[in-house]
Amino acid sequence: MALRLYRGDLLLIVALLVPLMVAAPRLGWPPGEAAALLGWVGRVSGIVGLAMLLVTAALSIRLPGFDRWFGGLDRLWQLHRLLGFSAFILIMLHVLALGLARVPAGLDVAVLTLFPPPSQLALWSGWLAWLAMVIFLAPTFRFFGRLDYQRWKGLHMLSAAALLLALGHALPLAGETWPWWLLGALGAGAMVWRKLLSPSLARHPYRVASVAPLARGVVEIALRPEARGLGYRPGQFVYFTPLDESLTAGRGEEHPYTIASAPHDPLLRIGIKDLGDASHALQTVSVGSRVMLEGPYGDFFAAHHPDRDALWLGGGIGITPFVSAARGMADVDEGRGVQLFYLANGPDRAYYLDELTRCAGENERFTVTTHFYRELGPLTESFLRHHCPDYADREIYLCGPPGMIGHLRDLLDAQGVPAARIHCEVFDFL
User: Fold this and answer.
1) What is the H or E stretch that residue 54 is in?
2) What sequence ranges are listed for the domain FAD-binding FR-type (predicted)?
3) 397 phi/psi in degrees, rounded to 5
């Protein structure tokens, strides 16, 4: 990820610092004695850890357009996960440091500090918040095998319990409570929106207009809006919830899919590859059945130096954002050139090659180059340079399987291409 600050990052920094700054007069400077220093560290880590927990909850709101404040929904989700894990670590440090700070007064005093009488409800509320976080986070460490995405989403209700219990721990003990009320309201409001309100207020009804096979295990589903359709830009994606009662899996589950149609298309089109139970069932979704869409999200083709020529590297079902952009090129009045490298195992797995070739024939600014793994092996720098000599000077966009993305990042990094000019879209964290 490029080291770039977005306006949303500044909001995060302020939100995390305000509770600490408000508490600073009571905390004072770090003392010199070991026990007192441990107590100070315990209090500071608790304040920052709770602020991170509440901010993590607030970032889960998932409003269209809000993700662009943070560089797109993929980056926002990475921040969400980083802050959540950091909050857990700091809360563990909070408990450990406060306990160790009381050891010089006696082991029994340290134990009583951490495990007080039942009447100390605020302290036991903190322990319950910690327990809820442990149960919620345990599946992410793969202690119990492969993480089941839908079950883990259901466990998010435990994170809501952890948030409320953590507030029940902090509010009675804090000097100034208004920062916690503010951050608590933002976090709780985001959860109420995501779990209770957005399913009915943020989703848009569509009907399946057609299901077109593109290759073995790959279809393009065309959707017709029941009312006003979503407005979107190339490179954005939606959360897709099918309601077809004949589906063998995935009914009522939301999954992210990149939009493959041009913005002017009256139908919204998405390409779906058979990668799991839900996507397998969608290969035969019923024409006329209802689906709900939420979005659009993403900022893949943001205006990163629009005067610079672009290089697109796409493979697998990750070709779809480039298909959307190629289909919409006729509507975009810009002079920059675009070269697409279509990376596929072979011609039979280049799902959209015929249409992309047609788009290239209609637009002199657009060029398509194929690279087939079964014939040539992994993409090499010499192949890239031969077909696109100025690739290192272009704005570069990557989308495809994680393994492909990792190889391309390593290749470009080895050639000294600045990370700020490499833009990537992946969905393995959504």
Assistant:
1) helix 34-58
2) 201-303
3) -125, 130
pLDDT (tens digit, 9 = 90+) per residue, 387-419?
999 999 999 999 999 899 999 999 999 999 998
Considering the entire predicted model, what is its pTM?
A: 0.83
Residue 17 sits in a domain whose CATH number is 1.20.120.1770
* 12 and 138 together in one domain: yes
d(CA 404, CA 398) in angstroms, rounded, equals: 9
- C-alpha span between 379 and 381 (Å, rounded): 7
What are the residues whose beta carbons fall under 8 Å from the beta carbon of 172, sequence distance 6 or more?
121, 122
d(CA 36, CA 255): 50
> What is the domain range of residue 208?
203-297
Q: Is residue 304 part of a domain?
A: no
Are 333 and 361 in contact, with CB atoms under 8 Å apart?
no
Integer Cα distance of 238 and 221 in angstroms:
13
**Count of CB atoms situated within 10 Å of the CB of 16:** 18
Q: Are 403 and 280 contained in the same domain?
A: no
End-to-end CA distance of the chain: 17
CB 424 within 8 A of CB 405: yes
In tens, the pLDDT along 274-289 reads 988 999 999 999 999 9
Claim to verify: residue 284 and residue 322 sit in the same structural domain: no
- Domain for residue 305, yes or no? no
Pull the structure tokens for residue 23.
């508490």
Contacting residues for 100 by C-beta, under 8 A, at least 6 apart: 38, 110
Residue 316: how many CB atoms within 10 A of its CB? 20
Nearest of 411, 279, 277, 297 to residue 343 by alpha carbon: 411
In whole angstroms, what is the distance from residue 240 CA to residue 253 CA? 8
DSSP secondary structure letters along 153-187: HHTHHHHHHHHHHHHHHHTTT-S--HHHHHHHHHH
The DSSP letter of residue 263 is T
